[in-house]
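hiii so um. not sure if this is the right channel but i have a protein structure encoded as tokens and i wanna go backwards to a sequence. like what aa goes where. can anyone help
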């Protein structure tokens, strides 16, 4: 499968050239344009009853993916994500899988397995857990980020604490746990909330910008107007 990532790093667009019979699986809604000969099929990925309960606690979030399949004729499909940022490739191989934030998943080649993981239910972090995807198999994974990608290599036993809104992906060789940031005071007033402690060996991908902070900045501008109109 041939592909090109255009307009890096801030306005990245993934253009995939599918040959006859080739397929790519992408986040639902990621399509920008495609050749009319390509067949499309959208499906829902769920984990289990426990996973469904966790999704309900998260406000009904779900994980839909769309398969783009070229029939007898070749064609292009272009994929992009909502926030401004970069698109990067991650090589997946037997024994070298990754755990990826749902919001950072963009697309994956044939041969890659996607398993939904919801972290938080068993830890008592109701409504504030992580919706993660365990990626395994063999092929190329495409991730998207808000801002630039900051990559780190952890040695065995080396630890790093990452804000959940900045966490993109990490190797499945790493151990990790979702936890509150500091004590109650720090959790309430630091603006961090929940973080993930990751222990190596393995790689970590971090995004430099925070979607939540962008939303709060926009709301601070429009809130006075909303309140004025509601009077």
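sure thing!! here u go:
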């Amino acid at each position: 499968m041939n592909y090109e990532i255009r307009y890096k790093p801030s306005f990245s667009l993934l253009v995939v050239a599918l040959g006859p019979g080739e397929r790519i699986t992408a986040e639902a809604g990621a399509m920008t344009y495609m050749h009319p000969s390509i067949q499309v099929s959208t499906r829902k990925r769920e984990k289990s009853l426990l996973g469904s309960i966790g999704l309900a606690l998260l406000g009904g979030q779900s994980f839909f993916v769309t398969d783009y399949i070229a029939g007898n004729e070749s064609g292009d499909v272009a994929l992009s994500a909502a926030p401004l940022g970069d698109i990067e490739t991650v090589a997946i191989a037997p024994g070298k899988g990754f755990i990826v934030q749902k919001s950072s998943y963009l697309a994956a080649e044939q041969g890659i397995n996607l398993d939904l993981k919801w972290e938080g239910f068993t830890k008592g972090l109701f409504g504030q857990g992580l919706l993660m995807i365990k990626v395994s198999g063999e092929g190329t994974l495409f991730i998207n980020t808000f801002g630039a990608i900051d990559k780190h290599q952890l040695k065995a036993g080396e630890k790093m604490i990452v804000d959940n809104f900045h966490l993109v992906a990490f190797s499945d060789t790493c151990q990790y746990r979702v936890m509150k940031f500091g004590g109650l005071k720090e959790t309430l007033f630091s603006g961090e909330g929940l973080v993930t402690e990751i222990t190596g060996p393995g790689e970590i991908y971090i995004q430099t910008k925070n979607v939540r902070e962008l939303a709060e900045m926009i709301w601070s501008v429009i809130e006075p107007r909303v309140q004025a109109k509601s009077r």
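oh and The longest strand covers residues 38-45.
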